[in-house]
Amino acid sequence: MRLLVALISVTSLLAGCGGTDWEERWSDAAGKVVADHVVSTSAPECVDEAVILYVGWPLGTRFDTVDQSRQYVRDPNGTLETLGSLDTDVALPAGTRNTGYHLGDLQLWLGRDARRAAYLVEGTTVERWPRLTEPVGCV
Q1: What is the pLDDT of residues 83-125, one digit of tens each?
Q2: Are strands 39-42 and 97-103 parallel, antiparallel or unpaired?
Q3: Are 30 and 48 in contact (CB under 8 A)?
Q4: Any idea where the domains of the chain sit in the sequence?
Q5: What does the DSSP 8-state code read for residue 50?
Q6: Quick one: which of 29, 59, 54 has its CA closest to 41?
Q7: pLDDT at 2
Q8: C-alpha distances in Å from residue 21, one per residue of 82, 103, 106
Q9: % of the chain at pLDDT higher than 90
Q10: What are the φ and ψ backbone dihedral angles of 8, each rounded to 5 degrees?
Q11: Which end of the chain has fewer CB atoms surrounding its CB within 10 Å, N or C?
């Protein structure tokens, strides 16, 4: 039974955002790889299935500490405290724009609610990742 639950969990994680390799480097609209301290993702080992997106703020600026970035999270288990909830099947709100940052086919979009959420778009799939209330200490 545990094996079945584990397989279902892994499958759902890979289905969301196409099985993206979160340790890869993000690129800008011109295809140039950006520094990890501008936009990056990581999957912390201490939080099962979570992926954290770090965005230098204001958008495009370098952050030297986690406190200088905004952190959005894909946490399907709801383990972390966030400003809202993960939505893996959502329409882009009016006014949301493509930032130009992308990880393969996965695009980062932000809207008027960027203080609370970021949108990750791959093809016709749109996910709303809520912002973390506190940085995760085990990354």
Answers
A1: 999 999 999 999 999 999 999 999 999 999 999 999 999 999 9
A2: unpaired
A3: no
A4: 2-130
A5: -
A6: 54
A7: 35
A8: 23, 9, 10
A9: 68
A10: -65, -40
A11: N
pTM for this entry: 0.83
Contacts of 112 (CB under 8 A, 6+ apart): 93, 95, 96
For the chain, the maximum distance between any two Cα atoms, rounded to a whole number of angstroms, is 47
Average pLDDT, the chain: 85
Q: pLDDT at position 8, please?
A: 32
Q: Is 3 helix (H, G, I), strand (E, B) or coil?
A: helix
Token pair recorded at residue 136: 């995760």
| Residue 10: C-alpha distances to residues 21, 48, 72, 94 (Å) | 13, 10, 20, 32
Read out DSSP for 51-82?
EEEEEETTTT---SSGGGEEEEEE-TT--S-B
